[in-house]
Amino acid sequence: MFIVNLAYIVPLDQIDAAMVEHMKFLNKHYKANLFVASGRKVPRTGGIILVLAQSKAEVESIMAEDPFCIHKLAEFTITEFQTSQVHPDLKKLLAKK
Q1: CB 89: neighbour CB atoms within 10 A?
Q2: The pTM is what?
Q3: Which residues contact 52 (CB under 8 A, 6 or more apart)?
Q4: DSSP label at 9?
C-alpha cells in the first residue's frame, strides 16, 4: 500500500478549475481497484490518496496522469507501507493485489 501526499503549489482557484479533470482521474483508478481512499487535507493545502499498487514505480506512473501533476498544480510524495492490520471489510480488496 502507498500513501500519496499531494501538496498544492498554486492558488486554490487554479486547483478548483482543474477539479473536474482530477475527479475523472480518481474515478478511473477507483474503478481499477487501485485507489482505496482519497480526500482533501485540513486545512486545504493538498490531498491524500491511498493506493494499492505493486511498486512505487507503478504509483509514479499513475500519478503522472493526474491533471494536478500534468498542469503543475501540485507536487506529490509517495510513502510505501506494509499493512499489518486492516478492517475486515478491506481484506478482500487487499487480497486482490
Answers
A1: 7
A2: 0.90
A3: 1, 2, 33, 34, 35, 36, 93, 94, 96, 97
A4: -
Query: Which phi and psi (to 5°) does residue 16 adopt?
Result: -60, -35
Mind listing the pLDDT tens digit for each residue in 41-94? 999 999 999 999 999 999 999 999 999 999 999 999 999 998 888 888 777 767
Distance CA 16, CA 1 (A): 28
Enumerate the domain spans of the chain: 2-95
**Chain centroid, CA 41 distance in Å:** 12
Architecture of the domain defined by 2-95: 2-Layer Sandwich (3.30)
Q: Which of 45, 40, 80 is nearest to 59 (CA)?
A: 80
Mean pLDDT, rounded, for 11-17: 97
